[in-house]
Specification:
Helix content is 40%, strand content 15%. The chain has helices at residues 13-19, 45-53, 67-80, 91-100, 117-129, 142-148, 171-181, 193-196, 230-244, 250-260, 263-281, 301-307, 322-332, 362-368, 384-397, and strands at residues 84-88, 108-112, 133-137, 153-159, 184-188, 206-210, 224-228, 287-291, 314-319, 337-338, 348-350, 374-378. The chain starts with 12 loop residues before the first helix and ends with a helix. A 7-stranded mixed beta sheet has the order 1-7-6-5-4-2-3, with helices on both faces. The protein has 398 residues and is an alpha/beta fold. The longest helix is centred in the C-terminal third of the chain and has 19 residues, at 263-281. The structure holds pyridoxal-5'-phosphate. Pyridoxal-5'-phosphate is lined by residues 90-92, 95, 116, 118-119, 159, 163, 188, 190-191, 210, 212, 222, 224.
């Protein structure tokens, strides 16, 4: 198949998200085709052998290569500025591959402690079962990262902004500490989306996304992606995924590929609305604390100004009435739906202490900043005034 990739340097991000990575077939279709197929036939036994040996390029089997999945990977890599990408069945499959693909028994991992519950499970509970020790640190505290390093430390892992507290970590500084320690840095970039932050440019070795969030952004399918240099992908990721099989379905890859075409439009609009709503809600008597990356009162506002090109569509709100107040707020909402997903066209609200972070002890939640009154609002594509009207009437009852 011909490679449709236009010249890279001249293209702006929006253009790349529409055109990059296409593999137009012999039928000359305008939009990218959905290859809902598993295997491929070879013109000869010799060609088949050459493909398995890696001497000839071409598709083999959908567990590790499919034309539609490849188009999604290539478009993501081009947009992220990565040499290579591998798609996975979910964001957690991407996180697990990025970690498990790099370590072996005896190694050590350091991670920020404010993490999405499943990321924290993989690091603090799953890896130790296989002899990989882990240390959780307060992410913004650079001295804590340095102090946690051991001779056997192989990987640093962080989320920034973190789920759900929107805590921000200085990625360039942590990448420098990792490099000095001989470790790699993996960044879960879900909360900024690929639009607002480029961890590879800040010195990270690997970026992971749950494509389920802003990349799909319309509540349809699960997906994930790991992005890094070609050498990193070959050494740590490709074989792990090929042999263990958490493959992205070609159908989901096709949905995600088409979603990328509108990613900029959607995330820019959602972020603009979230930023205006955060300003309008700050100081509301029923909100004891509002955290929004982009406001000057964010605890890491200086780092945000350095490393993020925009804010986020997520706002963290601490409701003054604690858990009861947070529940009253959620139950009084009409337009904004109670749901634990994020980055969607629909505005969604969740109470992390009883959902995404419910499996942790109260002490662990307190350490992560997940209080009983905290709610996480993911701003969608609705009109700001409709969302504000819904929130304000619900806050009256919170
Ligand atoms: C920060 C972060 N990382 C990873 C994931 C996992 O993504 P998925 O649900 O696609 O497995 C999530 C899901 O909420 C998330 O918020």
């Amino acid at each position: 198949m011909p490679d449709d990739r236009p010249d890279k340097p001249a293209l702006h991000p929006e253009t790349r998200l529409v055109h990059e990575g296409g593999l137009r077939s012999q039928f000359g279709e305008t939009s990218e085709a959905l290859f809902l197929t598993q295997g491929h036939v070879y013109p000869s036994a010799e060609e088949c052998e050459a493909r398995f040996k890696g001497e000839s390029k071409g598709f083999i089997y959908a567990r590790f290569s499919n034309p539609t999945v490849t188009m999604f990977e290539r478009r993501m890599a081009a947009f992220e500025g990565a040499e290579a990408a591998r798609a996975t069945a979910s964001g957690m499959a991407a996180v697990t591959a990025a970690l498990m693909g790099q370590v072996r028994a005896g190694d050590h991992v350091v991670a920020s402690r404010a993490l999405f519950g499943s990321c924290r499970y993989v690091i603090a509970e799953l890896l130790p079962r296989f002899g990989v020790a882990s240390t959780l640190v307060h992410g913004p505290d650079l001295a804590a990262w340095r102090a946690a390093v051991r001779p056997e430390t192989k990987v640093f892992f962080l989320e920034s902004p973190a789920n759900p507290t929107l805590e921000v970590i200085d990625i360039a500084a942590v990448a420098a500490i990792a490099k000095e320690a001989g470790a790699t840095l993996v960044v879960d970039n879900v909360f900024s989306s690929p639009i607002w932050q480029k961890p590879l440019e800040l010195g990270a070795d690997c970026v992971v996304y749950s494509a389920t969030k802003h990349i799909d952004g319309q509540g349809r399918c699960l997906g994930g992606v790991v992005l890094a240099s070609e050498a990193f992908i070959q050494e740590h990721i490709h074989t792990f995924l090929r042999q263990t099989g958490p493959a992205l379905s070609p159908f989901n890859a096709w949905v995600l590929l088409k979603s990328l075409e509108t990613l900029t439009l959607r995330v820019e609009k959602q972020t603009r609305t979230a930023s205006e709503m955060a300003d309008a809600l700050a100081g509301h008597p029923k909100i004891s604390r509002l955290i929004y990356p982009g406001r000057p009162d964010h605890p890491q506002a200086d780092i945000i100004a350095r490393q993020m090109r925009g804010g986020s569509n997520l706002i963290a709100l601490e409701i003054a009435g604690g858990k009861a107040g947070a529940f009253r707020l959620q139950n009084a909402l009409g337009l904004i739906k109670i749901s634990n997903n994020l980055g969607d066209a629909k505005s969604l609200i969740t109470h992390p202490a009883t959902t995404t972070h419910q499996r942790f002890t109260p002490e662990e939640r307190a350490e992560m900043g997940v209080s009983d009154g905290l709610v996480r609002l993911s701003v969608g594509l609705e009109h700001r005034d409709d969302l504000m009207a819904d929130l304000l009437q619900a806050l009256e009852r919170a």
